């Protein structure tokens, strides 16, 4: 009886400690986002006041109005959508086809190709900034959205290949053989049979790729110059003037910039998690 009670107390203490840890973690992660959201409804002067206030004394949507009625600032969002959308589509196309080939076929230098793909993932992107800049200038793509698309895909395609290869490895090969028995070719096997089954993996790769392309700042700042080719992260930085900071607009644009990623994750949450776990395990 005493042993049972002590075990019950131990389990209860562990649960309490777990809930306390989760609560503190949620506060630590959520408080900055909540502060950003509330600050976006404050006038710029109120943000600078000391001591700072958590809730707005004067509630205003002026920062959102200034952004949504300004064609130049709206252009930042259009550019981000164009770049992120193109990168997602091209990355998924390359990742699906390369992942299928690596999962289902044997060919020369396959092991070397796998090693190269993994090695590219291990290279810090910042070390490639100057080589990319020289290459983009040589290709005459500087200050264009094409430059951003190409550089982002260098980072996203290897990840997509690894994830899709792992996910295709979890799908039984008997499905491929059944399609061949019915007279189907390789492309039919891939696009009509395996791709629908691999939808969770595709969604997880697409969501990750979108987040990378949408949030990237360093290459977008370096490889573009004119305001009509800037993206949202760089647009936020441009609100920091030489003599004044438009903090309320920075917060509002940050909130608007977070919305696509948040909505994307909420819509595909289950598939995103299942795709990440399945694609990370090699059968």
From TrEMBL:
The keyword Isomerase does not apply. The lineage of its organism: Bacteria, Bacillati, Actinomycetota, Actinomycetes, Micrococcales. This is Carbohydrate ABC transporter permease. The chain crosses the membrane at residues 16-38, 78-100, 112-139, 145-168, 189-214, 250-268. It comes from Occultella glacieicola. It is found in: Cell membrane. Residues 77-268 form the ABC transmembrane type-1 domain. Pfam families: BPD_transp_1. Belongs to the binding-protein-dependent transport system permease family. Keywords: Cell membrane, Membrane, Transmembrane, Transmembrane helix, Transport. It is a multi-pass membrane protein.
């Amino acid at each position: 009886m005493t042993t049972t009670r002590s075990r019950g107390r131990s389990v209860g203490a562990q649960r309490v400690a777990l809930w306390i840890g989760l609560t503190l973690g949620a506060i630590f992660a959520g408080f900055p986002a909540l502060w950003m959201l509330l600050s976006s409804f404050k006038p710029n002067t109120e943000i600078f006041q000391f001591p700072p206030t958590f809730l707005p004394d004067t509630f205003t949507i002026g920062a959102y109005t200034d952004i949504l009625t300004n064609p130049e600032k709206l252009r930042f969002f259009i550019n981000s959508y164009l770049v992120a959308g193109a990168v997602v589509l091209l990355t998924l196309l390359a990742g699906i086809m390369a992942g299928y080939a690596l999962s289902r076929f044997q060919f020369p230098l396959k092991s070397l190709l796998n090693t190269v793909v993994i090695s590219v993932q291990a290279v810090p992107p910042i070390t490639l900034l100057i080589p990319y800049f020289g290459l983009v200038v040589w290709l005459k793509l500087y200050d264009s959205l094409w430059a951003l698309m190409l550089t982002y895909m260098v980072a996203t395609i290897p990840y997509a290949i690894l994830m899709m290869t792992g996910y295709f490895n979890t799908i039984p090969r008997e499905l491929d053989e059944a399609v061949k028995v019915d007279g189907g070719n390789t492309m039919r096997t891939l696009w009509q049979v395996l791709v629908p089954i691999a939808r969770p993996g595709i969604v997880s790769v697409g969501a990750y790729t979108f987040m990378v392309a949408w949030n990237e700042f360093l290459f977008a700042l370096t490889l573009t110059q004119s305001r009509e080719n800037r993206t949202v992260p760089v647009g936020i930085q441009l609100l920091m003037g030489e003599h004044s900071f438009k903090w309320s607009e920075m917060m509002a644009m940050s909130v608007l910039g977070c919305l696509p990623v948040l909505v994307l994750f909420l819509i595909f949450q289950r598939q995103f998690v299942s795709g990440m776990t399945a694609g990370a395990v090699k059968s």
